[in-house]
Amino acid sequence: MDYPKVLDLEKGPKVYFELKDSENLVKKLPTALDWENLIFELPEEKVKIDKNGNYDPKKSPNFHDWMVNG
């Protein structure tokens, strides 16, 4: 099997091999650009936490939603 062609790989990307249920899996590892594009979509919010670990849910609604709902 021509893995570079099948995985659309060019010189540079890194891959890892995994044996799962007697099957060889070859996967491309994410690049720095892949990670940058992923985190670009995440909401950004500054959260002020006091010395007791408290924050204002009204000033940090996304953080509060994440803390409450996961």
Walk me through what this model shows.
This is AbrB family transcriptional regulator. By secondary structure, the chain is of the alpha+beta class. The protein has one domain (3-69). 31% of the residues lie in helices and 17% in strands. The protein has helices spanning 3-6, 32-40, 61-69, and strands at residues 15-20, 23-28. It has a two-stranded antiparallel sheet with strand order 1-2. It is elongated, with a radius of gyration of 20 Å. The model has no long low-confidence stretch (mean pLDDT 84).
Strand order within the widest beta sheet: 1-2
Contiguous helical run count: 3
Question: How large, in whole angstroms, is the Cα Rg?
Answer: 20 Å
In N-to-C order, the SSE pattern is HEEHH
Keywords for this structure?
elongated, 3 helices, two-stranded antiparallel ribbon, 31% helix, alpha+beta, 70 residues
Short description:
It comes from Lactobacillus johnsonii N6.2. With 70 residues, the chain is α+β, with helices and mostly antiparallel strands.
